[in-house]
Amino acid sequence: MITPLIMAGGIGSRFWPLSRKHQPKQFLNLVDEDQSMIQATVSRISELASHEDIFIATNQDYATDIQMQLSEIPKDNITIEPMGKNTAACIGLAALYIERKDPEAVMVVLPSDHLIKNQERYLEIVEEAAEIAKMEDRLVTIGIKPNHPETGYGYIHYDQKDKLEGNEDIFAVKEFTEKPDRKTAKQFLDQGTYLWNSGMFVWQVSTIRKMFKKYMPKLHQALERMKEAIGTESEFEVLTKEFEKLDSISIDYGIMEKADDIYVIPGDFGWDDVGSWPALERVREADKAGNVVKGNHIGLETKNSIIQGNGKLITTVGLEDVVIVDTEDAILICDKKKAQDIKKLRKQLAESGFENCL
Question: Which CATH number, 3.90.550.10, 3.90.1300.10, 3.20.20.120, 3.30.470.10, labels domain 2-272?
């Protein structure tokens, strides 16, 4: 049975000041006026799995928001991490709850805040990945065909000659590569055997449990102790105690970079991670001056900019390639080329005593 696990614990720091600790990116209506990013993710995957089989991984801060936005998801399917310890621990904990419900489940691990334009093709690929994962102890990932030399994503290097038997579009993974510089990213694009790492993974719950035991024994032992406590009065206490001792390690580094028998399916379904403000140029319609505007804006000689209002009139003169975001208690004005540095700005705000604005 396909059992989606939607990871919803991030804070979407590069969408500050709209994205905050109390209302991160996945809960915002960034690309659709009618639903948030996480609501769109659930709606999309519910074509393959019932709401009773969809799990959400998050933390205590967002549990209430998830229950409000996703009332159709059973409360017991919302797994709550005591604290953030990166994606390996997040997936490991969720696997325990999924295993209790269905030991033969095929987990489909998905980010909560990505855009998929071609839903039909996306669902076809997810189904294909699930069928491959059912066969043996295989780890399957979905990579995205790159169309430009992106430095903000990790890459998956695959072997064009090593295909899964009987499948022309499923390739053996050679290695996972961290975010490259622009020159390296251009080489990856030219070589044609690299895909963007989408963060989508498919495997049997029994398989990923074996992988934790083999490649992350410390985490595996902690999971075994947590497994014994789940469903008892000491569950929260034990989970907190075990999480406190864990290292913060991503699933990519902890498992995917070490394991054998990993396959990738190239995705061609109009994917976008909507990772920072400039991404809105790809998903929203621009005006005749190239500006992407939401709210009240009057501009003179203002071009190719992103302007997000909050009710008050925003006026601009002689600006180009900037991001302007107005919220109730903070305003961002940023060179579009520097939008990735908003994450650094948040750190400086915290150090300067502006925690209330985060």
Answer: 3.90.550.10
Per-residue model confidence as pLDDT tens digits over 61-70: 899 999 999 9
How far is residue 298 CA from its own chain's centroid? 35
Question: What DSSP string describes 115-137?
Answer: EES-HHHHHHHHHHHHHHHHHTT
pLDDT score, position 328: 93
For 114, what's the count of Cα atoms within 13 Å in the CB-facing half-sphere? 22
The whole-angstrom separation of Cα 192 and Cα 210 is: 33
How far is 319 from 346, CA to CA, in rounded Å? 24
Give ranges for CATH 3.90.550.10 in the chain.
2-272
pTM attached to this predicted model? 0.93
Q: What is the pLDDT of residues 247-297, one digit of tens each?
A: 999 999 999 999 988 999 999 999 999 989 999 999 899 999 999 999 999
Which tokens hold the place of 141? 């990932």
Q: Where would I find the H helices in 57-111? A: 60-69, 86-101
